[in-house]
Design the sequence.
């Protein structure tokens, strides 16, 4: 099944809504980042569906085929590169496969897995989002004639950031799981960078460096956990 199945004709893209009639599957574990994608799709005319892990994404793809897949590289149950690799060789193929991450190395990983393009986080510019999708679309799916370029920047709901903090607190409470500690460190670093929360991003980066160097991390984990609790208690605004 594709995003164009059904009896109603698929609406054509327009100059102001160049992704009209398209469906974007966003594979993203951060509520804050996903809300940004929701706003970008809304401004562009696209429908959005969300999966927060690889398992959920594969369930979606058993039911329908989106026009665009935006896949975060760091997911709770594995690397988004696995899904990108599978999507790149699937038949029929998703028209546009984009990787996304806040990590500098992730762009090379996404392209090596078969992504068509890459969206570095934070993804805030409507124009940049539309341009990255449109340049990889087949010619027949692009809007005809000149396109109006929006200068708008999206601002995700701060409550979505709080949801991310609640998720991180749950994972941090799972003592002894080394893989999940690596995951939540990467998750917090990316989410905090996207939200402009430099203090938390820096603490998460220090924790990542300590783990990479084999140093004791108990104090770093305690600091990160405390900062997460501050944000859950609304003592820190973003």
Sequence:
């Amino acid at each position: 099944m594709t995003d164009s199945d059904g009896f109603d004709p698929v609406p054509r893209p327009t100059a102001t809504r160049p992704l009209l009639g398209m469906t974007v599957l966003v594979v993203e574990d951060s509520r804050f980042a996903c809300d940004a994608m929701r706003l970008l799709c809304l401004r562009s005319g696209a429908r959005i569906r969300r999966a927060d892990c690889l398992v959920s994404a594969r369930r979606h793809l058993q039911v329908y085929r989106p026009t665009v897949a935006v896949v975060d590289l760091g997911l709770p149950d594995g690397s988004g590169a696995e899904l990108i690799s599978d999507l790149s060789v699937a038949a029929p193929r998703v028209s546009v496969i984009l990787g996304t991450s806040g990590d500098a190395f992730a762009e090379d990983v996404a392209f090596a897995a078969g992504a068509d393009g890459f969206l570095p986080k934070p993804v805030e510019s409507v124009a940049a989002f539309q341009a990255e999708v449109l340049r990889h679309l087949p010619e027949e799916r692009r809007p005809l004639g000149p396109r109006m370029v929006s200068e708008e920047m999206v601002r995700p709901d701060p409550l979505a950031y709080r949801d991310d903090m609640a998720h991180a607190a749950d994972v941090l409470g799972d003592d002894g799981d080394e893989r999940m500690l690596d995951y939540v460190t990467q998750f917090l670093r990316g989410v905090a960078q996207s939200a402009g929360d430099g203090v938390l991003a820096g603490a998460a980066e220090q924790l990542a460096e300590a783990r990479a160097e084999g140093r004791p991390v108990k104090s770093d984990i305690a600091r990160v956990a405390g900062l997460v609790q501050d944000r859950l208690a609304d003592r820190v605004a973003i």
